[in-house]
Design brief:
The complex is a heterodimer of chains A (281) and B (290).
Chain A lengths: L1 H20 L2 E4 L2 E7 L3 H7 L2 H32 L6 H13 L2 H12 L6 H6 L9 H4 L1 H26 L3 H9 L4 H29 L3 H7 L10 H11 L3 H31 L6
Antiparallel strand pairs in A: 1-2
Helix pairs in contact in A: 1-13, 2-13, 3-8, 3-10, 4-8, 5-11, 8-10, 8-11, 10-13, 12-13
Chain B lengths: L1 E2 L12 E2 L4 H29 L4 H4 L13 H8 L2 H30 L7 H13 L6 H10 L6 H24 L4 H9 L4 H30 L2 H6 L7 H6 L9 H21 L1 H8 L6
Antiparallel strand pairs in B: 1-2
Classes of the chains: A mainly alpha (281), B mainly alpha (290).
Chain lengths: 281, 290
Amino acid sequence: MPALLFMILITQLPFLITLYNSFRRWILVRPKEHGFVGLANYQAVLSDPAFLHAVWITIVLTASAVLVSLIFGLVVALLLDRKFVGRGVARTLLITPFLVMPAAAALVWKTLMLNPDFGIVDWVLRPFGGGNIDWAGRHPLLTVILVLVWQWMPFMMLILLAGLQGQSPDIIEAAGVDGAGAFAIFRWMTLPHLRQYMELCVVLGSIYIIQTFDQVYLLTQGGPGQATTNLPYFIYLKTFRAGNIGYASAAGVIVVIGTIILATFALRLVASMFRQEGPAR
Amino acid sequence: MTTTTASAPLAQKRVRRTSAGSRVTGPILTVVTWLIALLFFFPVAWMVISGFKTEALAAELPPRFLFTPTVQQYANIVSRGVVPYALNSLMASVLSTLFVVVLAIPAAYALSMRPIPKWRDGLFFFLSTKMLPIAGAIAAIYLLATTLHLLDNVWVLIILYTSMNLPIAVWMIRSFMLEIPIELVEAAKVDGASFIRMLVSIIFPLLAPGLSSAALICFIFSWNEFFLAVNLTSTRAPTLPVFLTGFITSEGLFWAQLSAAATLCALPVVIAGWVSQKQLVRGLSLGAVK
């Protein structure tokens, strides 16, 4: 299986090298100080307030972006799961943010939309006394979350809409005949049915959003200060700005271990969806 | 209480509850839906519109929706040298997609139609690689690329994008292969068709829609990729996202030009996504949601 060999080589080799480097002292600007230092890098990373802060920012960023996208995605999916004029067009418009290159979207949001002087959001809010807000400067985390939700809500919506449309109409009809109200049907039938789709949204969304880099790099450059420095951006800074390969590798290994814990849950979930597919031939 | 349209095609036959209340709420919900859709689409529309403005118009408030469009900004980004970036993007996305499909077909086959021993482990190994944060290993990837003299070479992106998208393609193509009736394959075997012949005349035609949607998803992810492109290329092999980083500090200076560039970058994938909407869900959920 050439694909398997390729994947093992390309994905595992860099991680083995990362693991190896994480036990070495290696700072690019000080080439003479190479050597094994045992767990010193790990100690440095775990006792570094900046690293712990980046962990916290990553959790806040991922959790809020995923939750808001999920709830909003559910509302929009329910709205779209009806027959109305131009439904296909509305759906197409709604998925577009997910398709726009994230780097392009981040720059457009930063300038045309959210610029405090000439941005259109500022202009819209001005009559309500909300003008001249320096979004990226004063509310940096909120800005990044806003752009992330804008891009990821369509993703959640698509999966949830597929879930809604997979619901058996006969059962819903039967419940209606039996006198169940719209809310009761939603609470006791639709929601349980959607549960696994919602879990899939959360898991896949988390995996992608934890890795957020484009928006942070282009909207706020991790700042002001460290306000939006999440783990990918933190490791990027340590690798390319500070040139501290040993430290960055140790941080990388810790992040990978954390992700593996999360991924274990993810894999279990996908495996359970996959068993319902029936036995493979 | 409940009405179903008997004449509607089976796929669209969905239950509508038309109680007295929903005759009023129906139109309201439709308006709300449309408002949300337009709100979400607005930044994209605004980006496209601003790309046809002059710089002075682009930063003008109140915003101007009616104006004489100009293609000057597109000429400007061409003279700013966007073409080589676009060619690199095209090369990285198209070639990596091609490699992904070539590698994924036999892998998916071995994981579905003729399962190898421990096929389940193989399948989940592919998926697990997708979950590792690439930032964690960026230092090693950078050093490895330097050692192999692949830094700032479009091939480093091609190789990495192939590995990035291979799990998605394997899962997707596998789920499409499972839908091919096994009887067809058995019948071909009975008739004495060779493996290659069976592949070409039975599996490929049935798989074609699945393959094209898998390829589209891979193309989308490669085209939009930013992190690796920014960190591993600079002057010889930069792709379009790298071109965009030139606009980071454009505080009210080059908004029209930025909009034109952003539109150019976004356009291919937006169109590809619109065309393949139905397969998008399946690809994004790695084939789990049909």
